Amino acid sequence: MQNNVFDLIKIAGAKENHVPKPDLNNFTHVRAYHCCRPVDQHSYRDKGILVGQPGELESQFREIFNDFDEALLDQAVAKSPPSAELRVDLALDYRWLFRQCQEYAQYGSERLLKFADNLNSGNGIDLRGRLRDIGTPTMVIAEVPIKRVDKTDLEELDELLLQLANGQYKAVFESDEMIDFTISIDDGVPPDWIAEIKTLNDENDQLSVTAT
């Protein structure tokens, strides 16, 4: 059976038109977007989007910067302790990711970037560039079963749709059509939710979809 997918972007451009509020009960799935920088894009087809484990990110950081003294690596890691919440965040408007969350496609992980910045502290070496030498800037498009979306996220999305319908939504940036809204999946995104995988262009620190 074909999914009936809710796509926020289809109504985001009509904020000034006071479009009727969609009923989320009429949809089976929600289209959502995730930016990343994998070494192997095809891994998402096999494994989905996994929740980043602190130990794995630390090991990756130590491997990338293995030419640094171990004590310096320890200090860099200690300055950025892991978040208590391990989850995968998905945006409902990819344009928001492109504007506000470029680091995920450019450097692979916000925490890896923090480690590199901690290690760089005061020595003037471009360690961020080393992260950009690894992997491919990528956008993963998922179709998330609406029954798997957190209840609070759904309630907030419903309120957002009401604001859009009434012309009450206040854009974060004036004149922008993009909408800041994310949902969180605690146990990751399984491969059967993956709808598309797109390579991004990240030249001049601006993200765009690479033409195919």
What can you tell me about this protein's structure?
The protein has 212 residues and is α+β, with helices and mostly antiparallel strands. The chain has one domain. The chain is built from 9 helices and 7 strands, in the order βαβαααβααααβαβββ. The protein has a 5-stranded mixed β-sheet with strand order 1-2-4-6-7. The chain has a two-stranded antiparallel sheet with strand order 3-5. α4 crosses α7 (110-120).
Draw up the topology in text:
Blueprint: E1 5-6, H1 9-12, E2 29-36, H2 43-47, H3 54-64, H4 70-78, E3 88-91, H5 94-100, H6 103-107, H7 110-120, H8 128-132, E4 138-145, H9 151-165, E5 182-185, E6 194-201, E7 208-209
Parallel strand pairs: 1-2
Antiparallel strand pairs: 2-4, 3-5, 4-6, 6-7
Question: What is this structure, in a nutshell?
Answer:
The chain has nine helices and seven strands; from the N terminus they run βαβαααβααααβαβββ. With 212 residues, it is an alpha+beta fold. A five-stranded mixed sheet has the order 1-2-4-6-7.
What is the count of structural domains? 1
Main pleated-sheet profile = 5 strands, mixed
The tally of helices reads 9
End-to-end C-alpha gap: 29 Å
Evaluate the radius of gyration. 19 Å
Q: Encode the helix/strand succession as letters.
A: EHEHHHEHHHHEHEEE
Sheet with most strands: strand arrangement: 1-2-4-6-7
**Percent strand:** 15-25%
What characteristic shape results from the CA principal axes? elongated
Low-pLDDT segments: none
Q: Main traits of this protein?
A:
alpha+beta, two-stranded antiparallel sheet, 34% helix, 212 residues, five-stranded mixed β-sheet
